[in-house]
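Input chain follows. Return structure tokens only.
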Amino acid sequence: MQIQSIARVVEFVRIAGSMALDAQRGTIERSYKRDGSVLTGIDRRVEDYLFGEISRLYPAANVITEETVRFFDPARPYTFAVDPIDGTDVFSQGMAGWCVSVGLLDRRLAPIAGVVFAPHLDLLVLADVGKRPAVNEREIAPRGTVDPISARTNLMVSSGIHKLASFASFPGKIRSIGSAALHICFPVIYPGVAGSVQRGGSHIWDIAAAHAVNLSHGFCVEYLGGETIDYAGMVDGSRATGPILSGPRPVVDALRAILTKT
């Protein structure tokens, strides 16, 4: 089996996003997982839909999902990482900063494609296999000269990042809307956003799709300490081992010099 495009998966993601958006317009009942994160009923319905459709289309691929432990075979040539609603907390509160995220990884568990769909924002980011990233079907132009970090620099950060890294020496502005996948994609989409910093504890389904988007744009996604993200250690639901930086190489290197672990 060789996957040359995830165009069909994009169709599934659009439907899943519409399912979630319709649910958000109604009454949302919040519950909490053992780790304190929010769970809603629509999470499972969207996840079951995506798992069923992707598994039917690609029966020889692994499909890892957030809410249900799935069988993983390391010998399979591809792995899909599915987050039915990334940013469930803001979703459950009626806000817009959430998305449906599906990443594709190869046999080595390297991200090679991804789709991130934020229906409330009318935003679909796609990095198809071997192609440049596109937003709402328009290819994103390569980034030119990277501006140095200054008081005008915008940085997307996850909530709680202040508990893991000190921003005392960062001169710019930090912003957050909820979804880790969107945070990591925003430097690719918006030239005014220099990069992102996500707290430790991310899962493979949180970041794999956005990681693929960054790679397709020539950007990097790696740990604050400079280590490569090893997804092999995350296929069982384990979390990332530390804060994660994303953006153009000069920005990531500058952030690493500015930020310190707490």
